[in-house]
Amino acid sequence: MFDICQWINEPETWLAEPERLRVITDRHSDFWRQTHDGAERHSGHFFGARVTSGFTAQVRVAARCKNQGDHAGLMVRIDEQQWLRAGIGYFDDTPQLLSVLTQGRSDLAVGAALGEREEVWLRVTLTQGSLRVQASLDGQRWPLLRLASLPAAAEYRVGPVCGTPERGGMEVAFSEFSLQAPLQRGLTDLS
């Protein structure tokens, strides 16, 4: 499935196999816009597929996030000022489920602490302007991580994302990437 993706900020070291994408992050790679410190960063690694209508994207992510701001997961992007990224992130001295929604300015929503866990599954569904983000610890049960709005667009890009704003060299493995028509499930359906 990775053969339909294209890079925004291609990392120096990466390998795409039929079922797995391996990345080693470059130094100071990040996506962030203007929040508390006014910083604007558009240097993160994003391997996105183009879509023109609603979708459900899913991926399995393995990463050892250990420095503030390290992250790996899924991104949905309209342009440089409108996007969402969600996944494993390092915040407050621990790996956690995180999401960042950017509509001109970035926000940060912190989810559950992951402890020693270095692997999660992520699912993003976009339908009729609603963006449903789910995270799973086992690939079977899919609790809600975030529900947000994203403007209608002629085209979106969706796929794996990672970055290390304070360092480089984080190894990330993405697998089980899929892209399909939007799942039509109720908000409390965890399947």
UniProtKB/TrEMBL annotation:
InterPro entries given for it? Answer: ConA-like_dom_sf, DUF1349, UCP022704
Give a single Pfam family match: DUF1349
Protein name (record): DUF1349 domain-containing protein
Q: What is the lineage of its organism?
A: Bacteria, Pseudomonadati, Pseudomonadota, Gammaproteobacteria, Pseudomonadales
Cross-referenced SUPFAM superfamilies: Concanavalin A-like lectins/glucanases
Question: Source organism's superkingdom?
Answer: Bacteria
| Parts forming coiled coils | none
